[in-house]
Amino acid sequence: MMPADRPLSPHLQIYKPQLTSLLSITHRATGLAVSVGTVLLLWWLIAAAAGDAAYATTQAFWGSWIGILLLLGWSYSLFYHLCNGIRHLAWDTGHGFDIATTYRSGWTVVGASVVLTLVAWVIGIIVLGQQP
Amino acid sequence: MSARAGMRSPLGRAVGVGSAKEGVQHWWMQRVTAVALVPLTLWFVVALIAHIGARRAIVVAWLGSPFVAIAMVLLLIATFYHMALGIEAVIEDYVHSELLKISALILNRLAAIVLGAAGIFAVLRIALGS
User: Fold this and answer.
1) What is the CATH number of the domain that holds B53?
2) Domain hosting residue B82, numbered range
3) B107 vs A: CB within 8 A
4) Which of A6, A68, B10, B107 has its CA 20 to 30 A from that of B45?
5) Nearest CA in chain B to A90
6) pTM, whole model, 2 decimals?
7) Global ipTM
8) In chain A, what residues touch B83 (CB-CB under 8 Å)?
């Protein structure tokens, strides 16, 4: 087939990054990140069922700085995906598509995901501190 | 309308064709699992942070309570269902080789079932006392 002699649509890297497009790709990226983290957490769950030796290995991993860093990243990714997912559910009802609202809901997602991550860690650490 | 349309009416040709029947299944189940995951994950993240550094006895006691065990099983089902649908969309968007794409799609579905089953078994084993 002869290539059509008409201008190509500009590629993604030509566009100036916008909040809307960045949040969109971040939704997908955090979805994948949460998936990877979930598989790692499954290892923790299975180890808890398997016995003391297996559990000690996972505990050493999750207690290390890389484990805590991964958990932080996993929880932030999850909260981002959750907040932006709710934004998607609102869009599914046909609401919030005008540019002003899209930006407002977008910044709300950014703020809420950070706040929820902080709150979850504060509550989680308080509960952890109350354990025998 | 073509002269070779034959005996079938336009409606007869249209019924059962098109995406309005099963085509929405992927989209719909993604929404259903998403709604289920909102309360389940909010609960789980906090509970997880509180338990991941804990001794095994504490984790086992926690998972042993009926509420936690049932919530965990529901969470596992919704998570791996939702995860399979999401990764499926990513594979369909970015993997262009037909053989690789079909292989990845099958592997993705099977992995979700295997991982989900393993997780549910682990919860049940703890909850029902090995």
Assistant:
1) 1.20.1300.10
2) 24-127
3) no
4) B107
5) B31
6) 0.86
7) 0.87
8) 34-35, 38
